[in-house]
Hints:
The structure holds 2 protein chains of 2 kinds. Chain A contains no helices and 11 strands. Chain A has strands at 4-7, 10-14, 19-25, 33-38, 44-50, 56-59, 62-67, 72-77, 86-93, 100-102, 106-111. In chain A, strands 2, 4, 5, 9, 10 and 11 form a 6-stranded mixed sheet that branches. In chain A, strand 9 and strand 10 (100-102) form a beta hairpin. By secondary structure, chain B is mainly beta. The model of chain B has no long low-confidence stretch (mean pLDDT 94). The interface between A and B is medium-sized, with 26 and 25 residues.
Amino acid sequence: KQEVTQIPAALSVPEGENLVLNCSFTDSAIYNLQWFRQDPGKGLTSLLLIQSSQREQTSGRLNASLDKSSGRSTLYIAASQPGDSATYLCAGYDNAGNMLTFGGGTRLMVKP
Amino acid sequence: GAGVSQTPSNKVTEKGKYVELRCDPISGHTALYWYRQSLGQGPEFLIYFQGTGAADDSGLPNDRFFAVRPEGSVSTLKIQRTERGDSAVYLCASGEGHTQYFGPGTRLTVL
């Protein structure tokens, strides 16, 4: 059974700092990996999807990488802003590309 | 275009009552998923529909939980004899290929 872990559970940084959020998974047979953002009391917003054959994806100030052999993914946020404050979740798709297994999330606070 | 919608947004019920949670997926999406998110945790998979049939219901915690999707569009998650431990946010997602789009969730509180 796939298990996904996110470290750290919470992170507080000053505005403008570059930061890295970590995600590890136990089953290297993971299919795609997706990073989400969740604001308090809200649903999930997809940030980046790394497909099985890819190693990274970029969108604006965000860059996500995937290394299946080591069971790791990272989300890099450049020049962080207070508006980036949210919980960030990573999730891996099973081999059939159906079920998502989520990590516990990293709660990020960017202080002005 | 319209995203995934869920109703109600909040539901408060008493222990032992029956509740129904509704999900309207993005039009044309054949896949529909239900997840449950407890406070401070990531969502956990409950059930996955492909069309009208439940392709994988391995995440349903027990037989008090049941979900249907009779016409391959709207889905209803049904919880019988609710318990306080059922309190959580219930998220629905629909998708095509290997991408899922999430609704805002229904926050269920069992008193």
